[in-house]
Amino acid sequence: MTQSTATDLAPTIEELEEQERRLVFQRFTYEDAWALGSLLVELSRERGLPVAIDIHRAGQQLFHAALPGSTPDNDAWIARKRRVAVRYGAPSYLVGSRFRAKGTTFEHSSRLDPDVYAAHGGSFPIRVADVGVIGAVTVSGLPQVEDHRLVVEALEKFLGTSAG
To answer: What protein family is recorded (predicted)?
Structure first.
């Protein structure tokens, strides 16, 4: 995929904010983490995607899977993207998009260590209604827009909601 093709597929800030508003849990248990993680593994295996998948809640890793073709670097990216999603309470791709919309980059303007934080697509906060952000589900291994879209697709299926 060329850079221009990936950019053409990029969701707008408005679309990202709509996803954030819509993809909210009523509760999130250990069993939910297992089911959501398993759904992500199933979608990824069906497509032969070389990804690592991670679900954290309240600082505890509840699910992790590394599929063929993924590498230890994917785990490092997961940690960096997850820190952004949890710190900002927003999808990591949305955080990066907001900086780009201001004509800057997350790395330049956030004043956060880029070795610790990455505002690249693929981490989506786990938000529980009337509670707030309690963790994140994260995928790494694809171009950032595709990582983001895979997580959103799984969340939509899991929560039984979609944009249309």
So the answer is: Belongs to the UPF0303 family.
